[in-house]
Amino acid sequence: MTAPAIRVLIVDDHPMVAEGIQSILESYDDIEVVGTLGNGQEAVDRAEALSPDVILMDLNMPGLGGLSATELILERLPDTRILILSMHDSPEYISTALGHGAKGYVLKDVPTDEIRQAIDTVMRGERYLCTGASGSLEPKEDDGRGALTGREQTILLQLAQGKSNKEVAIALDISVRTVETHRKNIKRKLGISSTAGLTRYAMEHGVLQGTGGRF
Fold first, then answer.
1. Residue 196 burial class via C-beta count within 10 angstroms: exposed 0-12, middle 13-18, buried 19 and up
2. Strands 31-37 and 6-11: what pairing?
3. pLDDT digits (tens, 9 = 90+) for 180-214
4. Of 11, 2, 22, nearest to 61 (Cα)?
């Protein structure tokens, strides 16, 4: 019995790039390109309906960027494998992408067969790093602030403003359970056990005033 085709969604704001990747992938009998979208918000809005196995996500796009889109999609479709597409090959970019939930990182100028290799790798449940990425890259955790993802930073701000889990869920259009999960992760990463501690941390680091700089 033939295995079902791998469903791939391409998200890139450069039509020529998206069309080029689509042409490459459609040459494989066991890959189905279910759509090409031009920005992160479109991907978030349509991912559930398109039900991709793998999303090739551009990193830098106007409006909602690839990292934020990755987090939002994974909250709704946790089994989706997201491969970040980028022109940047620095360890910092790769670590940040992995920290936001991406399963791999692919440079836009890689050979055709490497894109296919990346898709096959994440479909096996493994992580794929572009050629030239040495070692096992993980999100930096030099201090608590560096460990937080962009989504966790947003939720920390909401919690520090005194909002309940339900209020945060409504404000960010996510489930209460998702907020609770993020809240636990934030507390673990920062080594803080109480909500009061989160608020105090936010005040001390200028989060409430928007002057805290990089997390």
1. exposed
2. parallel
3. 888 888 887 777 777 777 777 777 666 555 434 33
4. 11
Alpha helices in the chain (DSSP H): 15-25, 40-50, 66-76, 91-99, 112-123, 144-147, 150-160, 165-172, 176-190, 195-204
Cα–Cα distance for residue pair 21/27, rounded to 1 Å: 10
User: In degrees to the nearest 10, what's the CA dihedral of 63, 130, 215, 150?
Assistant: 40
Per-residue pLDDT of 16-51, as tens digits, reads 999 999 999 999 999 999 999 999 999 999 999 999
The one-letter code for the residue type at 175 is S
Phi, psi of 175 (to 5 degrees): -80, 155
> HSE of 159 in the Cβ direction (CA atoms, 13 Å)?
24
Section 127-154 average pLDDT:
61
Sheet of 54-58, strand order: 31-37, 6-11, 54-58, 81-86, 104-107, 128-129
Over the range 129-160, which residues count as b (16 or more CB within 10 Å of their CB) and which as e?
A: bbeebeeebebeeeebbebbbbbbbbbbbbbb
